[in-house]
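Query form — protein Prenyltransferase

QUESTION: What is the three-dimensional structure of this chain?
INPUT:
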Amino acid sequence: MKGEPVEVSEMGATTEIDWDADVVADPEESYQSLVRSLQRTEGFSLFFVRCVPGDQADLVQRLQADLPALLMQRLELKEELVDGNLYQRVATLPNLQSINVLFISGLEKSLDPYVKSGYGGQGDYYKLDTVPRVLGHLNLQRERFRDDFSFCFVFFLNAFGIKYIARRAPDFFDWRSGIFEFVPDSETVGKLTQELQGDYDEYLAWSHTQRLDRIRDIQAILEEDQQTPDQQASLWIEKGNILSADRNYEAAITSYDKALEFKPDYHEAWNNRGNALSDLGRKEEAITSYDKALEFKPDYHEAWYSRGNALSALGRKEEAITSYDKALEFKPDYREAWNNRGNALSALGHKEEAITSYDKALEFKPDYHEAWYNCGNALSALGRKEEAITSYDKALEFKPDYHEAWYNKACFYGLQKNVDLAIATLQQAINLDSEYREMAKTDSDFDGIRQDDRFRSLLNPNFAS
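ANSWER: The structure tokens for Prenyltransferase are given below.
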């Protein structure tokens, strides 16, 4: 940020904020300057402090220790201000008349909805037509802030937040009394980068808001200096993973591409980029991305497996099996590869080989309900119905709400003309997914019991015998 002029339009004129002249950048010098500024401030004043989220609490604690005569309070905005009314949030704070300094953090949460998808990853996100509601309020209510609040406001923001407010809330920003930078050193940046590494399965369990919060933290570190290319690449891929978990696949691909700018041989980025492309249905492009991952890491079993899935989805089953075999060459206990290999073999009519593949998957994960179910389908296709039922029962043992297995069992009993069991198991399937009622109306497996009044009543609840 230092040294980068920011154009601000006001009353038809354009001015520039010169960060070199306006910002103190050395951390200790910034701190002492902030202390002096707070000491001599009386009445309303407005400071902007750039620092990473993890440093905010430490900074407040240090200021409270060094300036015990000043009553300090924190307002942490934990979510977007939907109405944009920051004034009202401040006006309802306790001990308002006694406050000397109010620290406000989390304002970036109210900017996110107005930033292009991907948060900083696509184009010039400052030039969107809409102004965040909170900034519109700040522009319009700046006199009320000055007249009603006779204390010092200290806004904690990252580099993006400060620049965004300068551009989109110039009326309010022009009242600033100072800007103070606390730029982390390379060791701190490295530590923060490491702390932001997470697990994709964990991201899947998070809420949308939790994912946005983590993306914001990552973006804040990305805007800091003192980074190595590897650190930048790891942050971009982490951001891409979170966006993928949030099903924002286009933005995720943009993030993976940024990771690859810093580290072209980053095989995980190529692989995850392929996954996002695959989720968008762009299977051919996904395969190309997997191939790039394998160019840099030929024994990358995840890429071989994902490549097999994309090939299978395109109907290229033989090639898919070859890809699964490569995955299994490098990871023999890869149960998902054994299962999907079985699916590809089954689609080609090689049911016995498919069953062998499912058995291998179950060898490594005996409670693998998908493999039990798929094995049941292959056994059923071979006419080994009793064995198929046993396999479906194993699937249901480990996943009692597995509606596909309930329905396939019902079909078997329908073929046997076992009305009682057909109705009981079909009822289980319908309870889990009502679509099975419509499927059963035309499924030939139930032809032998279709005229039974109990069966007709199950398919047509309004039926009267």
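ADDITIONAL NOTE: The two ends are 79 Å apart (CA to CA).
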